[in-house]
Amino acid sequence: MSFDIDVRRRLGETEIACRIEPGAGVTVLFGPSGAGKTSVLNMVAGLLRPERGHVRVGERTLFDAAAHIDLPPEARRAGYVFQEPRLFPHLRVRANLLYGHRKGAVSDVDGVIGLLGIAPLLDRWPRTLSGGEAKRVAIGRALLADPAFLLLDEPLASLDRPRREEILRLLERLRDRSGLPILLVTHDRSEAERLGDRIVAFG
Amino acid sequence: MLSAEEWSIVLLSLRVGGVAVLAVLPLAFGLAWLLARTRFPGKLLLDALVHLPLVVPPVVTGWILLLAFAPAGPIGGLIERWFGATVLFRWSGAAIASAVMALPLMVRAIRLSLEAVDRRLEQAARSLGAGPWRTFATVTLPLALPGVLAGLVLGFARALGEFGATITFVSNVPGETQTLPLAIYSALQLPGGEGQVLRLSALSVAIALVALLGSEMVARRAGRGTHVL
Known about the structure:
Helices cover about 30% and strands about 25% of the residues of chain A. By secondary structure, chain A is of the alpha/beta class. The longest helix of chain A has 18 residues, at about 160-180. Chain B has helices spanning about 5-35, 45-55, 60-70, 75-85, 90-115, 120-125, 130-160, 165-170, 180-190, 195-225. At the A-B interface, loops of A face helix 6 and helix 7 of B.
């Protein structure tokens, strides 16, 4: 299971082009802010349509311009952790976590809640959470939607140092335990080197 | 307190206003959606047309409705042929006049709330496996709900206060089209009608106040922190 991505799209003045060859483990897309890394994740998630190219994950083709394949985002099974938590403000943490969870799905709700240490937060409203708490809930929500792969957009951005270390350790555990292909975007070299099995320079 | 006649005026007003805003709500929501979320040629013109009842003298709006809904008119002719009925001099006609006058306020309120919904939350819902309809029902609509309620209340208040278009379109028929403002106007013409004017005016204020407070409470419960007032 790995990413096979080759996408191109013009956004305003910038031409975004990204090519990722299949390879195991965590792929880090590394480059400066504003280079369009998030746009690449959006193209993989189906939120932004590439003009050319293809997106494959393992055996599944999510997008192929030549073959006119373009799965809608809800059919791609992307576990997308956005740069901002994007928790639903009108739902409590519990309902946020279970939003993408289908009954009978394989993902183990209690296991994920335990792994992330968010059991005490379940009855809180998102606006009462700290940055680190919200980030963990967002990761849990993505994991419980039974994803086929994970997209992490600057997972450590806007967190203070102790929180960064905490989320970093969490991501390492996730990488070692889940076995899901992970595509991670960052502008931080130490983060890229610590988490990535391979690093794709971008921009 | 109130005489039986005055009670029937109040009930008629509530029925006219309630039916008007509830019946026009789907149209208002659809228009608000078009204006907030889509781009198409002629959008500016549609926007202007929707707002027209807000700026045209209500008497003119009433007259245009009269032309359209008269038995020989384009819409009145259809109603006559399909249902063998007319809305002229009927409470249904008063509701139509109120609905037309309430529409721009409702569209404005709903449109603003739709524009305020963070599209990134909808993207998150889609990536979590929700299709467009589920995303709409579970994310967009709940987040826009305070605006929809505000639109309903504003529209209802506007409908309750409707005078010019109503009296031009369906006249001032007691028990059928004589809503609160029309009844107050009639009472003002009568010698010794001051007591009735006072009672009906106080009722108008009370109804508007209850509607505002009620919607505020519902919005607080539904929107957690968002509100109408």
